[in-house]
Design a protein that fits this description.
By secondary structure, the chain is α+β, with helices and mostly antiparallel strands. It has two domains: 69 residues, Gyrase A, domain 2 (2-Layer Sandwich); 127 residues, Cyclophilin-like (Cyclophilin), CATH 2.40.100.10. Helix content is 19%, strand content 29%. The chain has four helices and 13 strands. The strands form four sheets. It has a four-stranded antiparallel sheet with strand order 1-2-4-3, with helices on one face. Pfam families: CT_C_D. InterPro entries: CT_C_D, Cyclophilin-like_dom_sf, PxpB. Keywords: ATP-binding, Hydrolase, Nucleotide-binding.
């Protein structure tokens, strides 16, 4: 179905410099589908879409009038990418982090309860951000919601499986970070040698489950 009706003036497009427009919308699944649709049928001078928490940035190599972009968006069809077409991932995790006992104490849960609660949901990749391929995962059990550490670490290893606020995530490269580390996975998540979108294992709209391994 078309994203906007003919009268789409109620949908805000905010300019971000001369060559980009930002769309904010509460339905993140719609933003994900629009991101895919505009990649399949891009307007002239289009570079890339960039998904955020509740936004989609349209990046161009040259200025584009707002009404030209609105008209192109209205011409796109979303809803053709069914959930069955999304990739599903199983991520094996060794829950052996030194943080685990501290997290258990903060949440007043046992280590075993934390692992069980972390493995139970099916997570959805909301968007990639912070560092290459780092996926913000919706679906974390509310009992595991925990603020980020007050003092971030200067280095966290790739494959570190973490929770922060209301999201789960996995670090893909060595980087600073303040999330709470639960364990580690050897699952390949980022292949920089590919130098395109196929470098990222996880993509917005994908689903995944964690499973505990020794």
């Amino acid at each position: 179905m078309p994203l906007f009706s003919t009268d789409s003036t109620n949908v805000a497009l905010t300019p971000c410099g001369p060559c980009a427009w930002l769309l904010q919308h509460e339905d993140h699944s719609l933003l994900t589908e629009l991101s895919e649709a505009i990649l399949e049928n891009p307007p002239p001078s289009f570079i890339e879409p960039v998904l955020g928490y509740d936004t989609l940035l349209f990046h161009f190599s040259s200025p584009i009038p707002e009404e030209t972009l609105r008209s192109h968006i209205r011409s796109l069809t979303v809803g053709s990418h069914s959930r069955q077409e999304r990739s599903r991932h199983i991520i094996s995790v060794r829950y052996n982090s030194p943080d685990l006992q501290e997290i258990a104490d903060d949440l007043k849960l046992s280590r075993e309860e934390i692992i069980q609660l972390h493995c139970a949901p099916t997570y959805t990749v909301r968007f990639l951000g912070f560092s290459p391929g780092f996926a913000y995962l919706d679906g974390l059990d509310t009992q595991l919601h925990l603020p980020r550490r007050s003092s971030p670490r200067t280095r966290i290893e790739p494959g570190s499986v973490a929770i922060g606020g209301s999201h789960a995530g996995i670090y893909t490269i060595p980087s600073p970070g303040g999330w709470n580390i639960l364990g580690h996975t050897d699952h390949p998540l980022f292949s920089p040698e590919k130098n395109d979108l196929t470098a990222f294992t996880l993509k917005p709209g994908d689903t995944l489950k964690f499973q505990s391994v020794d």
